[in-house]
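YM 10:42: HD/PDEase domain-containing protein sequence, as discussed on the call
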Amino acid sequence: MSSDFSDQRGQVEEAFPELDEIESEDLREKVVEAWCLGLARGGWHDIHDIPYAWNIHETDNVEHVRGVTRIAVKAAEEQRDFHGADPDFDVIVAACLLHDVGKCYEYVDFVDEEKLDSPNPEYATSEVPHSISGYALAHEVGCPLAVQRAIPHFLGEVPKRTLEAELVKSANSASSNAITYATMGISLKEWVAEYSQTQE
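YM 10:58: structure's back
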């Protein structure tokens, strides 16, 4: 990775201690690289400035991404230990950590200008949903297909979903539901119906 990303790299590694749960050093590096690219192109000064949602700034995206990862890992452990399934933990953790990296691009239009430094208009736009731009970032840095296909989490984006992809999607809903209740006193379903720019 280019030394131009040294500031972003430090932020990413500090923000996401769950990176240490990825056994593959190569995959761990790709997750960090995707975040560094997103932060640099989005022009973000601080990874914690990216909000959870365009209209929920009380919780940042880092907290949500970490929550999704923690929920998914615990669920995967139950799937393995209780049901005898064989989820791929590296895929789950990497995909969870990347599922909202696209907000680096999408949410530049929803924060104060002083939080940004010259977002690159070729990438930074609210016109493309973050699950799609996140998929594109994961693809660009060379994440395995199993990780890429688990990132799009809106209904219908991936026609055939894997065990790992379903875990990311359900953990995302669980974390999001907790955040919408905590910040707005409404369920995720109510938030989506009233505010979502992309329907579930």
